[in-house]
Amino acid sequence: MEEKIFFYYTNDLHSHFENWSKIVSYFNQKKEQRKAAKQASWFLDIGDHVDRSHSISEAFMGKANVELLNHANYDIATIGNNEGITLDYDDLYHLYDHASFQLVCGNLQSVNKDNPSWLKDSYYSITDSGIKIGFIGLTAPFNAFYNLLGWNVTSPYEYLDRHIDRIANNCDIVILLSHLGINEDEEIARRYPDIDVIIGGHTHHLFRTGEYVNKTLLTAAGKHGTNVGEVILTWDHYRNKLVQKEGYVTNIEHVDRDSMTGVKLDEYQKQADQILGETVVTLTEPLEVNWFQSTKLMTMLVDTLMEWTNSDCAMLNAGLLLETLDAGDVSYRDIHRICPHPINPCTVDLNGNELAEVIRGSLTKSLMELELKGFGFRGTVIGKMVFAGLDVELEHQHGEYRVGSIRMGGKLLDRNKTYRVATADMFTFGQLLPEISRAKKKHFFMPEFLRDLLVHALKTKF
Predict the structure, then answer these.
(1) Which of 446, 416, 445, 449 has its CA nearest to residue 348?
(2) Are 377 and 343 within 8 A, CB to CB?
(3) Are residues 387 and 450 part of one domain?
């Protein structure tokens, strides 16, 4: 006799709540189908459900996201980096206190006290027919950030080396909820054949019908809840083994919305608007925003960053500020709207030659007009780099900037001197500005976001 077992999942929603009521509606349909057919099913989230670029997540520090997962009757979840490193220690420690689902993450530990009661490294569940399923959760080890917040994330390979035999020997099927990214998922599949299925996220990859690495099924549903995933496993009771693994992704664009979820989201939005509605400053004139010019508001933010971090100089891209602040009362909701990014201030040590290369690279047309998605950036284009503590001589020809002399405190940059440079942590990832990403000495300021510095600047300078 063969039995089919079903798993439905979301990954990397990033608080795109415009899709959430459709997801709930679709999952409710599947719950009813599986119940009617007396088939086992689980509903899973693979992390980055929370994203503080949305005002609901910001106002409730992620707890509304957990309540939405409760309301949708999820069974198991793991955490992503947006839960892990965009909340301060206490907010993360208590984030899942009232979760009605099980949170699994094997490589996350609290540094200064016992792990929260909701955190399990693995979890077992049994079907009515007696098939035992082991769930593992793992998240990306961004310890440069986690350690500053009071957490430690060990290598996923270290965890699996120590525990995979125990877990596999105690169950019939092993499923990994991985917020590690596609490259790590593929490597784990190569190293650990006892893992039957890896449900992935973090790198927003999409496997419409699943992919195999050796005998492990890899699956993932992209980002932002436009698709949801389904895994179907077939167990042969006579042979006492798993005989088929299938992975599918479904686009939910045309799914009807769940009305109760819509009402709940409307209520959260009203509450969020109230929570974030406190006046920060009253402006007598508007503060303009322009992605390709140095404006008063942007200059003030960069100056504040340099002061806040006690740096020799600072630089931020003008695309970080999305909209003009109108004259009149400005609330935290307004600040969040124009600077929604979960991006932290940071400093890097660069010598004069490296700093000059960063300045030149930052002012290229290709970078300024780059439509970036990721690294915490929630805007449209990078925009022009704005500096504090530096006098940069520029010529503008044919849409490109030519950098002439660069001075600090009236003196030309010393090519061999080391400078402390403040910027946005997004430039420490990838290859946007290679000299910054390769810098050996970096310091991240946690849990402040750049918008917290903007609030500080507006309160103290107006």
Answers:
(1) 445
(2) yes
(3) yes
Same domain, 55 and 191: yes
Structural domain for 324, as ranges? 278-461
Give the CA distances from residue 330 to residues 59, 213, 274, in Å, rounded to whole numbers and listed in that order: 16, 53, 14
Handedness of CA 365, 367, 368, 371 (dihedral sign): positive
Question: Above 90 in pLDDT, residue 112?
Answer: no
Cα 442 to Cα 346: distance, rounded to the nearest angstrom: 7
Total domains in the fold of the chain: 2
Query: What torsion do the CA atoms of 326, 332, 338, 342 make, to the nearest 10 degrees?
Result: 170
User: Are 95 and 71 within one domain?
Assistant: yes
d(CA 379, CA 388): 22
Mean pLDDT (the chain, rounded): 96
- 327 pLDDT more than 80: yes
Do 262 and 309 lie in one domain? The reply is: no
Mean pLDDT across 397-410: 84
pTM of the model: 0.94
333 and 244 within one domain: no
